[in-house]
Amino acid sequence: MLTLSNVSKRYGSSPPVLEQIDLVIDQGEFVSLIGPSGCGKSTLLKLISGLTSPGSGSILVDGKTPVNARKTISYIFQDATLLPWRTVSRNVGLGLELEHVSRESRKQKVDSLIELVGLSHVARAYPRQLSGGMKMRVSVARALATAPHLLLMDEPFGALDEMTRDRLNEELLRLRAEQHWTAVFVTHSVAEAVFLSTRIIVLAPSPGRIAEEITIPLPFPRTSVTRESEQFESFVTEVSRALRGVHSA
Questions:
Q1: Domain 2-248, CATH 3.40.50.300 — does that match?
Q2: Is this structure's pTM higher than 0.70?
Q3: What pLDDT, in 10s, does the model give residues 88-129?
């Protein structure tokens, strides 16, 4: 699904943000990027999405450059970035409108996705009428409307309270099980990374580089029971230790 070969990135004459990133992500994986602030996590997502270009190295998504694969990629930002003058339904359907999908087909797809994320009761509401968690669910539904092969997420739940975040994490894994997309997810939360991921990439800063890769073989589906297990706590400890290692290096 995704191959990064010897990827480096710098802005102007500044020191490199990322250096010699080699990473292969298979179809269906859920990979989290975690590391100290300034290690290049968000920059790496932008490179994969084609929003910016690497200084050196190559990136392939489904065998294509990110720019040529853009129709198969969806991006969820830290903020929900909803259009305030559009209802929930019209925000979810924005990408389909831009692709000139017929009104009838668009309505069927939008209604299905809104039901999938549990927001049918607010389909005609505007963003100002929604809670933070509801706004992020609209953002997720909008990203899934174009049936992406690859879903990129940059700390989408970082501003939410812990209970809402945990609930949306479970919702996200349920959607993944139904739709079978591949995910690259940026987070500062070790527990969130362990709960969601099949694999965690720990990045070290100055310049950003891969310090460690940790496979998370916890069974799916993952629920609140998963978070209470000894195995979950063991992986949280392992990832936390790796993170402390790059902080102190």
A1: yes
A2: yes
A3: 999 999 988 888 888 888 899 899 889 888 899 999 999 999
Residue 135 has pLDDT above 80, yes or no: yes
Instruction: Extract the tokens encoding 20.
Output: 């010699």
In the chain, what are the domain boundaries? 2-248
How far apart are alpha carbons 191 and 35 in whole angstroms? 13
210, 203 in Cβ contact below 8 A?
A: yes
The span from the CA of 48 to the CA of 69, in Å, is: 10
Strand 56-61 versus strand 2-9 pairing type: antiparallel
Q: Where are the beta strands (DSSP E) in the chain?
A: 2-9, 18-25, 30-34, 56-61, 73-76, 150-154, 182-186, 199-204, 209-215
- Which range is most confident: 131-140, 152-161, 234-243? 234-243
Please give the pLDDT value at position 210: 95
Q: Nearest-CA neighbor of 179 among 149, 202, 158? A: 149
